[in-house]
Amino acid sequence: MIEVYTDGASSGNPGVSGAGVYVKANGKIYEYAFPLGMLSNHEAEFHAVIKALEICKKNFPGEILSFRSDSRVVVDVIVKDFTKNQTFLPLFEKIKMEASNFPHFFIKWIPEKKNNHADQLARKALRMY
Question: For the segment 52-99, what is each residue's pLDDT rounded down to a tens digit?
Fold first, then answer.
């Protein structure tokens, strides 16, 4: 099972944003920081999950994925399999499409203090502009 921690950050809302992805797989750690452009914080959180799924598709095909995020909005949308928000809907559809490449995809909400690695990577992405 691959453990994946994601976080999005935005300097302003909307503003310059970034995504952080922290992966624990097969006894190794993988870290990624992605500048995302001008987005809201919630949008950056969704994009962080998408980026993480793309990384896993490339590097860990066929694995069971256990994601963790400190974004209640993202976790609730994915767990409930529903959103009315027109901004989030295409991002949610992309997540569902990418997640379908894996036998099992789980996501769980965690408090911010337990998501330090992904948070630091998302903040690093903000400084990459």
Answer: 999 999 999 999 999 999 999 999 999 999 999 999 999 999 999 999
Structure tokens at 52: 């993480």
Paired tokens of 65: 């994925």
| Strand order from edge to edge, sheet including 65-69 | 28-39, 15-25, 2-12, 65-69, 105-109
Q: Where are the alpha helices (DSSP H) in 19-66?
A: 41-59
- Sorted by sequence, the CB contacts under 8 Å of residue 17 that are 6+ apart come out as 8, 9, 10, 11, 35, 36, 37, 38, 39, 40, 41, 43, 44, 47, 125, 126
Q: 0.85 exceeded by the pTM? A: yes
Alpha-carbon distance of 4 to 63, in angstroms, equals 12
State which H helix or E strand residue 10 sits in. Answer: strand 2-12
Q: With 90 as the cut, is the pLDDT of residue 129 above it?
A: no
Token code pair at residue 3: 């453990």
Residue with tokens 């690093």: 124
